[in-house]
Design goal:
Elements (H helix, E strand, L loop, with lengths): L13 H26 L8 H33 L17 H16 L3 H30 L1 H9 L5
Amino acid sequence: MNKEPENKNHKHTVHFVLVQSYLVFLLAILIGVFFDTLLKGKLFSNDIYKYIGFLMLIISSLVIFWAQNTSHDYKNKKLKDESMSHFEHGPYKYLRNPTHLSVFIMTLGFGLIINSFFSIIFATVAYVLTKILFLRKEEKMLEKKYGETYVGYKKKVKNWI
């Protein structure tokens, strides 16, 4: 007996919106590398920026892991305690979109490692576009799902950059 998923239209889930925004970052790197190959655009002659980029990759990966772990732990604890608030745990105490900001920092770090001028430019453009196009949509979905709880959280925890 096959059990049908609750939400048959996955295009209207928060996770689908986030995946789309992350794909924009991947596209930014690929387009950046393409333009760097064509135009020979290099940023730095000093290797210190590769180490900074590597550090950015590590830190952003840790924040993503922390955010994902926090979400997973919340789901498990929520099953035991229905009154538990969804927000303001882990990195969500400080950022409304810690994974999104971390993917941006990771993309910038990768651009520094490969010394790609255009990857850094396109990653920055991708960050602005995804905040405008995808994160606004995500926040509307969360407001609809959680109502005043999420609106109060938005007032308390500001969006960075």
